[in-house]
Structure formats: C-alpha cells, structure tokens
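S.,

Sequence below, as promised.
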Amino acid sequence: MLCTIGLSGLPLAGMAQGDFAIVQQNLANPDNEPAPVQPVPSERQMLWQETEFYAFFHYGMNTYTGLEWGNGDEAETQFAPTAAPNPRQWLEAVKAAGMKGGIAVVKHHDGFCLWPTETTDHNVTRGGNDFAKNTNIPRDFAAAAKELDMKYGFYISPWDRNSALYGTPRYVNEVFLAQCAELAQYGTDQFEMWFDGAQGGSGYYGGQGGTRNVDNSYYYDIPNLRDSVHKVCPNCVLWGVGGEARWIGNEAGWAGQTNWSTENRGTAPESNGMYGSEDGWFWLPGESDAKGTNSGWFWHQGESPQTPERLFQMYLETVGRNATLILNMPPDRSGSLPQATVTCLENLGNLLKQRLGTDLAPQATVTVSEERTAGSNRTYVAANLTDGDKDTYWATNDGTKTATITLTWENPLFIHYVALQEYIRKGQRIKGFKIETTTDGQTWTERAANVERTTVGYKRIIPLNGSTTSYGSGFETKALRITITDSKACPLLHTISVY
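The prediction came back faster than expected:
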C-alpha cells in the first residue's frame, strides 16, 4: 500500500510539523485478482446458472384437448380439471428428484391464460367447472415454491393464436407486455421468464383466421420488456427471445461436450446452441429443455415417464456439460402429476444421491504445480479447490496457462466421476485438460480418453469410463491427476469433486 501526503491548505511557510495528514492510497489490485476474460455473466445469469436442474410443467388447455399446439379457437369450458390443480404437488415431486425449482406454463400458443387476467376473456374464469374458475396457477405455483424454498418462474407464449390483435402494434402493449407485467406481480424473486421463439403462423385470431407472421427480433419490444421485468424482478433471466440464456439447440437432453457460454449475435442459437462460440462477444449460457415422458410436452393418455437411468443420462449430458437442464413433467387432467411420474422422480433423486452425493475430494491431499501469489485479502491456494466455498478459487500466475492438480488419498478407493467448476465470474477460460489415475503413485493411466476434454465452464462432470449410460464398477485409485493443457488465460477453478 502506498501513501501520499495531503497538505492542509496552509501556505507552506506557515505550516507547523503537525499540519499534515497521511492519506492512504490503495493499489489498483491489492488482492492480485486475475483480470477477467470477457465476456462475463451478469449477477442474475450467475444465480440462474447455479440453479442447474429444474422442472418444466406444461399444463393448460392442451391437457384437455389432447393437442400440443392449440389453434386458439378452443371453448374456454374445455378447460375442466377433475380436481383442484395442485402446483405444490408438482414441486414436491421434482424437489425429491434433486431439482431446485420449476417453470410453469401459464399461457401457451393457444392464448389461454391460467390466471384471471384483465387482458383477455380466454382465461380460467370462463372455465368448464368450479375447479377451473378458481384456478390461478401463477399465484399457487409461486406460493408453493416459496414455502418449499425453491426457485420459480413462468412460461408465457409471445405468440397468441386466439387474440384478434396479434400481429398488430396494439398486441404487444395491450396483451403481451401487459400479461408479463401481471405475472411479474406474483413475486419479485422469479428466476426466469421463458419465451420461446415462435414467430407466428396460422390461428383463430378472434375469428378472423388466416396466417400472421412477425419478426420477433423487434416486434415484441424485448429491450423494453427486459427493463420492465428487471425493475420488478431484478434476478429474473429472460430466456429465448429475451436474450439472456440460449436454447441448447435440441429437445433431447444433451449439450455438446465442448460447450462455451459465450456466443455471437450472428450465430443462430438453433444451429449452434449445443456448443456456443469460443470467441463469442456476449455471455449467453445454454439451457437444455427435455421431455421427461415418452409422449409430448403436454400430458397425453397412455404416456409414461422416462426411466430414471435415462433421466440420469440427460443430467450428465447437460448439467455435466456446462448447461442447465429444464426437465418437463406434465400434470394430467386432475391437475397433478401422475403417480408413475412421482415414483420416477423419487428414483432419479436416489440415483443422484447414490452416484453424485458423496464427494471424496475433501478427503484427499491436494497439490498443484503452481499457486498464484496471494493478495492482501485473498489467496489462490490448492486448498480452495476442496473447501466447499464457491467464492474461493485456485489460480496460477498471469502468463501460466497450463497446470497440474493432484489429489492423493491415504488409502485407495474406487471412483466413477470427476467434476470441475471454473470461477466463471471472471470468464470461461479452460480449453483443454486430461485426467489420469494411479494405484501406486508411479504408473499413471489416462481416463475418459474417448471424451472431449476441452471446455469446463460452470460445471463439467467427466465419467472416467467414458460413458454416460453405464455406471460401471469404477476405478481403484490412490491418486488422481488433472492436467490443464490449454487455457485462454491463467486457469481458475473453484471446486473439484470426485465421486
């Protein structure tokens, strides 16, 4: 720390010995923190990424018509739940699966709203029975999430096949933005609003019919929408056309093994969503939306849930590849999840606990090839990798882009997975790494050789046997060595976990 002398303002000749003060001047970087590799996530994007695994609940008019995309001409009385819809049951079931939150579909393309909105008569108040007329999914979903300490948000379709105003300037302000504002009032702590990329097509349109198409890049006035939502819900990420998180590019529950959170405006997310762009100039992390059942997004008679093993594979190939996973589990006509779905989710939760629930890394002695020089209030030591604190991290000195990290246990044990997490608040850096194990501390064997060991990002889970479909018997290990072979700048990792 440097100091300067600040004069008291008296003429120099008239100053006595005590007429000066010591003014402290801080160095520009007293903690010796690495410079960020741009771009970096916003705080709301960071909180969103930490959610990792959450549910999608497609429920609405289509549940009762058997359609996936309603035309918008459905009579409101067709919405007729056989019991009171129960969002709390939805959330309790997915919480048992290890999910941290959920997003409820409250308006799909048919335009039917699952709350008593002032923007359209096409809503629950005109439903087919008392269960329907008393339905308010945003209210009940938000309340249940708060009681269960879970994150929550809403899907609201920008495309509205019912509204006579769709495709005109009036629709955006009088219907779409007004509906978003209504939903924002159900809680200021929403973590995501979900807007798909539909740009119109054929529809009922108030009885006028025909086809109406728009350019969603400007029609929905997204900059104004973002600002308006953020004023009420400061940590709410706007997905899709909202421009704060990207579609991973498929609906099959997988992301690219090489997956950057950075992207360029000129790259269509649909064609590059699984991978991102290494030199992308803005932060746009990927979200994978996938069906948890063997039918459509909405519930259909005769459907069944995917097996827990299949869902575990999806988890490894999304959350384990620097993406988030939003897994759809549709309620049936009673307004609740079927028992088969509830059982499947419980079994998935058990798999996650059994396979990824006990971290062996804190039991190891950790050594590294280099530790960054400590600052005044921050260190970058190897112990930061296993201290369970996401805000501490290990780093090398500037100019060092390769490094080795070795974890050694007192007694050999069997391991299946290694998870790495970069300190992405300072950008995504790592471009290449490899993993080796030894049983005697002398002879090393490379693992997961058939896996792309390139990017890490927020989280990368590496199956040491190279398979996301076979758990295997594990590898006997005395020591584990991770070698970072390439990085954009000095590598930063906040956590290494071993399972």
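The longest helix spans residues 339-356.

Coffee later?
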